[in-house]
Amino acid sequence: METIYNAHLALKDKKISAKELCAEHIKVAKENLNNTFITLTEDYALEKAKKIDNAGIKSFLDGIPFSLKDLFITKNIRTTAGSKMLYNYVPPYEGTTSANLQNSGAVLIGKVGCDEFGMGSSNENTAFGAVNFPMNKDYLPGGSSGASAVSVLEGSSLFSMGTDTGGSVRLPANFCGLVGYKPTYGRVSRYGQIAYASSLDQASPFARTPLDIAIIMDAITKNDEKDSTQAPIGAMNSAEKILKNKETKLSLAIGIDRSMVDNCREDVRDNLNDSIKLLEKRGVKFKDISLPHLKYSVAVYYVIATSEASSNLARFDGVHFGYSAKGGQDLEDSYALSRSEGFHEEVKRRILLGTFCLSSGYSDEYYSHACKVRKLIYNDFQNAFNECDYVYSPVCATTSFKKDELMTPLQMYMNDLYTIPVNLAGLPSMAIPYGKSSMNSLPTGFQLIGNSFKDEDLILDGHKIFEVLK
Amino acid sequence: MSKYEPVIGIEIHVQLNTLTKAWCNCELKINGFENHYVCEVCSAQPGTLPVVNKQAVDYALMLGLATNCTINKTSYYDRKNYFYPDLPKGYQITQFKTPICEDGLVEIGSENGDSKKIRIERIQLEEDTGKSTHYNDYSLINLNRAGTPLVEIVTKPDFETAKEVTNFLKKIQSILVYLDVSKGNLQDGNMRCDVNLSLKPIGSKTLGTRTEVKNLNSFRSVERAIAHEKIRQASVLDKGDKVLQQTLLFDVDTGANRVLRTKSDADDYRYMPEPDLLALSVTEGQIKKLKENLPELPTDKVERFIKEFNIPKYDAEVICSEKKLANYFEKACSLHQGNAYKKISNWVMVELLKLVNEAKADIETLKLTPKHLVELVELIESGKISGKIAKDIFVEVYDTGKYPSDIVTDKGLEQNSDTSEIEEIIKEIINAHPKEVAELKSGRDRVMGFFVGQVMKKTQGKANPKITSDLVSKLLEL
Question: Are the Cβ atoms of A310 and B47 closer than 8 angstroms?
Fold first, then answer.
């Protein structure tokens, strides 16, 4: 019963009630072995589950317990962004993703931790303490949506919503052996999702199977007039399509830049090559492609993302909401104190970096230049999609890394080398687990990147591939 | 002063009178109960996003069309980043690189009475801030105004005198009101003007360093600030010093401009494209539709009034400078049965405007309606009352709203055109003034006025002056 779909069948067959199902998951959450949750919504969840039991199970998500990364706004439920800055922030409005999921019947168990404002790859940059990796306590679940992955892994949620700006969902999904799905930019409304980098952020689900991902995506892709950057193309209907589909043959052309696989650590590389062989056996044609500008991705990302962040995070000034430091001598001093005390190091680093990149005299050299290279990266993928349906890529060159592994910020940033290009190009990508490392027995996997707004195809084919490799 | 000539350009911020705010559905009620017209978007709660108000876009386009601008089919929103408590997002959404309208042209009257063309550099869409009120040891913020749609109009440095600037402002104000896109009131802050001014030696092509003067909330302040700034910069230059690139604040009490900040510590607004909004696309069809539905503009109305009512250009311009006044005049003309439009225009421009301006009254709610005015003019035209009587009762009509014909009847003010009665009076006067009779007979025509005056005196102004003078001529066999 670890998947949404199986739980749904059990609920429908009355093998378990929604209240029981939620209680089971809340129990795990309350044991708090991994410091997953920042805010639990137990009473609220049980109340809702009871209502669903009374009304009967209709949709796939009715009675399904889930968690939200604490970047998702929830009306009247504290939303912290993992930051001291919003330690006591209770939003006066409801975010679209939260509303869509709850209106579809899913039961919110609570809000889970994350790297502050989604900035990080380890889930350690947080005012609420790092999240443990249930598979091996010496390792990390990855970030920034690490706690979302852990909530699925530990069994406190059947699915969780994270946000993926540069790989923040696909990386922890990969480390935790889950399916992580980053939709096309503009497929899911960003209204009520605390912004890190607006042109890159995308709400992205964690689940155990592509079918579950389909169920979630169908619920969160409704048109939302409050986000004008969302493409008004209506909700997906992919779960039904997966269930109806009987075709298992993989007549797909998948592009691959072999050097990307070759540059991975041996244990990861071996498993990736294995998966490629297996897929070839099942009919997939792998085509060698070249993505020559991807090597600039990390540089481009850290200019664009931090520039946008420096502006997006300006509203946290201690005046209107959030942390407000005492003792400022004047306005400027109060701003400086509130922001110095309210933000952690990584957020400050990125704000400073972005402020620099946008400064007059530097903006053309950094920001405008990065935007141009971003376009080239997009073009690289478009050229590839002229020849193939999808692009195959590693998610990370390694498995999860150890807690005490000392990394400079730059080394940490390089973990996102393979995930970042997808965000820069605005493409959809599914992180699919495959195999265990021969070195540390931790999960490995790859990502399948689709073309813009081919989300439904990607999820349908991702499902087939997942089933083949299972 | 004579050594230098000023080069002046201005920026005008105009609050659009849309129903809702620029990026959210909050009702636009700046003066409503404090912080009551505020939602999660305009208070910049985390996670919120802006959505473009289409009405504001239409209004900006209408203004662009009315000022002969080029409309950019694709324009972009940008963020201007700066910290201030009444700017809750920490950035203003504006149009920095590509505004919605560019390269406009507006014709104004210049100092010597000729017309002059002022070039508009750009019209950009943006948003207003909230309002801070500062007290001794604390400040209060009201966000009702935050997110009010604005357009900023930036001119080329085409002004040479303060009068040209105020003429331009008045022209823009009248266009705004004609289009009904803004209340256009300087005093209420619907329209705010910043003046950029530099001096250069007369005849020189090289521009001097400019300063920017803010806080000008009346035409008078604009003129005073320009006058002060010219003198201030001239004295700096005369001393051999350099004018600093500064932002100044006009002080209404002292009439002086004091330094708000010096630009050398470079305001760096770290402009960036607004990632939360798509490019703003305007279609040919949208422009065409707006053009077709564009209300008549002041310049067109002037032309039409000249043609239709055969009034002088000067009259038409005075009347059309204010939409309500023009409507009043046009209504009166439409009610009028004859063609004494020039008479109507005279009454409107002189007597009516005098009373309206004294009382600062709203032309639309006057007791003296166009119908009253037309009746008055027609009473004169038909010879029923004299112009003098008409002037006398005008104030009463204005104050009470009584119809002129009723007042004339009630008070027995009707003009006397009874020749035999007037003849009798003239005969008496001829007999009593032989000296004047001799003078008139000897050809001193202006003595006729004496006779008419005497008759008026005896009839309390009711004798018809034309008939009177005709009778005098007849009786004296002139």
Answer: no
Q: What whole-number distance in Å separates Cα of residue A157 and Cα of residue B310?
A: 83
List the single residue in A71, A92, A335 with the smallest CB-CB distance to B83: A335
**B208 φ/ψ angles, rounded to the nearest 5 degrees:** -85, 180
Please count the residue pairs, one from chain A and one from chain B, whose beta carbons lie less than 8 angstroms apart: 106
Domain edges within chain B: 4-289, 296-411, 419-475
Q: Which residue in the set B51, B88, B275 is minimally distant from A198, CB to CB?
A: B275
**pLDDT tens by residue, A254-295:** 999 999 999 999 999 999 999 999 999 999 999 999 999 999
A149, amino acid identity: A
Among the options A19, A48, A69, A182, which is catalytic?
Answer: A69
Distance CA A337, CA A350 (A): 18
Angle at A135 between CA A130 and CA A138, to 5 degrees: 55
**In the prediction, which pLDDT does B477 show?**
77
pLDDT per residue as tens digits for the range A41-64: 999 999 999 999 999 999 999 999
Residue A281 pLDDT: 94
- From chain B, the residues in CB contact with A79 under 8 A are 46-47
**Residue A69 annotated as catalytic:** yes
- The pLDDT score that the predictor gives to residue A25 is 98
Contact B272 A193 (CB under 8 A): no
Interface test with A, best of B35, B45, B94, B271 (most A CBs within 10 A): B45
Residue of chain B whose Cα is closest to the Cα of A357: B270
**Would you place residue A81 in the very low, low, confident or very high pLDDT band (cuts 50, 70, 90)?**
very high
Q: Do B270 and A227 lie within an 8 Å CB cutoff?
A: no
Asked if the C-beta of B140 comes within 8 angstroms of chain A's C-beta atoms, the answer is no
Out of 1.50.10.20, 3.40.1390.10, 1.10.10.410, 3.40.50.2000, select the CATH number for domain B419-475: 1.10.10.410
Nearest Cα residue to B199 out of B164, B227, B163: B227
Question: pLDDT, tens digit, for every residue of A418-463?
Answer: 999 999 999 999 999 999 999 999 999 999 999 999 999 999 999 9
User: What pTM was computed for the model?
Assistant: 0.90
Distance CA B155, CA A254 (A): 56
CB contact under 8 A, B40 and A93: yes
Angle at A304 between CA A302 and CA A307, to 5 degrees: 95
Chain A's closest residue to B79, CA to CA, is A311
Cis peptide before A307 (omega within 30 of 0): no
pLDDT of A16: 97
pLDDT in tens, B332-343: 999 998 889 999
Separation of alpha carbons A150 and A147, rounded Å: 5
Q: Which residues of B touch A81 (CB under 8 A)?
A: 46
Q: What ipTM, to 2 d.p.?
A: 0.96
**Percent of chain B surpassing pLDDT 70:** 98
Q: Quick check: B44 and A320 CB within 8 A? A: yes
A111 is annotated as an active-site residue: no
CB A325 within 8 A of CB A334: yes
Residue in chain A lying closest to B92 (CA): A311
Asked if A228 and B50 come within 8 Å (Cβ–Cβ), the reply is: yes
Q: Which of A193, A227, A319 sits opposite B85 (nearest CB)?
A: A319
Beta bridge pairs of residue A179? A207
Q: Domains (ranges, CATH) in chain A?
A: 1-470 (3.90.1300.10)
- Please check whether residue B88 touches A, CB under 8 A: yes
Using the Cβ of B137 and the Cβ atoms of chain A, whether some distance falls under 8 Å is answered with no
**Which of B173, B147, B156 shows the shortest CA–CA distance to B18?**
B147
